[in-house]
């Protein structure tokens, strides 16, 4: 995949600052829907530090790493983690990412911690004009540490209510199963989560994809669809057997395939996958900044553009902002615009794609589309 040509950390930071400095009022102002962000991936060094101080938990970058004693040590450790072509290869980077990502969970202990985690995202989102979002969380990473369902779900539910009331940000949660754990653990967690279904709109699949194809989890996804949940799964970029995983996600799992695919960028290399995704009208959540770390600048834009031009409802999202140069949905939209030479009309279409492929109520979707239309009208009044 040309890791040797991917942008190093310093250039990615420069690119981020340059994109923001442009002051693109249209991209900032357009009402946004975010469909792919891991709440635990928004745990910045600062938030981790705050929660660690409150709970008295230990701060480490990896399970067997040394204890970090200050916020500055944590910031340095997180900086060092970010992939740089001069430092590590793809697989090693992914391993390090997951190690650090799961170690980050340690600071989440109480209902207040889960509330604060979600509110921290919502406050950031409101500033970027995010009006609706569907947020991933990984319950298995919390129950395995002894955290109870009420602790997680009541914290998330209260944050959701407060964000809607105070910030005008609506939301729903997507419970992801960790694909490197067993299908029976996924089923057990699915059943345990049913009392909280008012707070959970959909079911996802994330974590390390190597040798963990979508069909392995067919039983629990089939049951979840029957129970009325929406379905999505990660098909990470450049994963082993990625085309087959995308095919299963798009057309096999739970009878005829899922409602959305997370990432799936490699579909751009296979016309039969593109045709199938178009035919089934499966939305794809694209997170450009995360691909920039492994892909060359030159090859990334054309792949995203190909999916967009084929008529697939791609949306632009952030994934794990705390681990990605602090790039949130705004920076990802600015990056997509530059990479693909999108104009403001395209940006509006991407925003509408996100509304259409979201799982919001029809009335909420209509309102969001009207809001997007109003902002377009303000920037480009009809003569
Ligand atoms: N869980 C959190 N972030 C993830 C990512 N980028 N890929 C797969 N699983 C994840
Ligand atoms: Zn993701």
From TrEMBL:
GO cellular component, one term: cytosol
Database matches in InterPro entries: A/AMP_deam_AS, A_deaminase_dom, Ado/ade_deaminase, Metal_Hydrolase
Cofactors named for this entry: Zn(2+)
One Gene Ontology molecular-function label: metal ion binding
GO BP terms in the entry: adenine catabolic process; hypoxanthine salvage; purine ribonucleoside monophosphate biosynthetic process
Protein name as catalogued: Adenosine deaminase
Residue intervals passing through the bilayer: none
Hydrolase recorded as keyword: yes
């Amino acid at each position: 995949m040309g890791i040797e040509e991917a942008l190093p950390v310093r250039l990615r930071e420069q690119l981020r600052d340059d994109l923001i400095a442009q002051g693109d009022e249209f991209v900032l102002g357009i009402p946004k829907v975010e469909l792919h962000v891991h709440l635990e991936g928004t745990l910045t060094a600062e938030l981790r530090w705050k929660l660690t101080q409150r709970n008295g938990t230990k701060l480490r970058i990896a399970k067997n790493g040394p204890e970090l004693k200050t916020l500055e040590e944590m910031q340095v450790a997180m900086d060092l983690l970010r992939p740089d072509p001069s430092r590590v290869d793809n697989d090693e980077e992914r391993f390090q990412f997951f190690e650090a990502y799961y170690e980050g969970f340690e600071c989440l202990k109480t209902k207040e911690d889960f509330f604060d985690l979600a509110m921290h995202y919502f406050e950031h989102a409101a500033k970027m004009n995010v009006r609706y979002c569907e947020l991933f969380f990984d319950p298995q990473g919390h129950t395995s540490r002894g955290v109870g369902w009420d602790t997680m779900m009541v914290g998330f539910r209260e944050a959701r209510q407060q964000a809607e009331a105070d910030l005008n940000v609506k939301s729903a949660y997507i419970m992801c199963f960790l694909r490197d754990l067993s299908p029976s653990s996924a089923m057990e967690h699915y059943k345990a989560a049913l009392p909280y279904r008012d707070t959970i709109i959909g079911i996802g699949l994330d974590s390390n994809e190597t040798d963990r194809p979508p069909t392995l989890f067919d039983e629990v996804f089939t049951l979840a669809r029957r129970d009325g949940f929406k379905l999505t799964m990660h098909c990470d970029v450049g994963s082993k057997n990625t085309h087959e995983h995308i095919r299963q996600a798009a057309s096999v799992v739970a009878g005829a395939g899922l409602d959305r695919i997370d990432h799936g960028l490699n579909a751009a290399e296979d016309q039969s996958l593109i045709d199938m995704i178009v035919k089934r009208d499966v939305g794809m959540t694209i997170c450009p900044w995360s691909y920039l770390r492994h892909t060359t600048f030159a090859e990334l834009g054309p792949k995203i553009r190909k999916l967009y031009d084929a008529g697939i409802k791609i949306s632009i999202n952030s994934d794990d902002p705390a681990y990605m140069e602090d790039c949130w949905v705004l920076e990802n939209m600015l990056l997509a615009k530059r990479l693909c030479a999108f104009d403001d009309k395209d940006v509006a279409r991407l925003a509408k794609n996100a509304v259409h492929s979201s799982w919001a109520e029809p009335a909420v979707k209509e309102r969001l589309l009207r809001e997007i239309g109003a902002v377009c009208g303000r920037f480009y009044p009809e003569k």
